Amino acid sequence: GLSKLGVPVGPVNNIDQVFADPQVLHRQMKISMPHPSAGSGHVDLIGCPIKLSETPVDYRLPPPTCGQHTSEINQSSNN
User: Can you give the pTM of this predicted structure?
Assistant: First the structure.
């Protein structure tokens, strides 16, 4: 295949495979947050790769819904 020709290749994982990867699990890269559009009430996300012991990341807001901040953006661009 391509690897014999010197082309770097690797598997393409689906999201379940990504979150089951031993390195992802070890580094605690999977986070879960409440989300209004999620059928289960929460959405699984990729956490911040930077891990600082004295200043850990604080996940405060879930991903925005489509158009959630449109009026705020329009107001700030008119000023």
Answer: 0.64
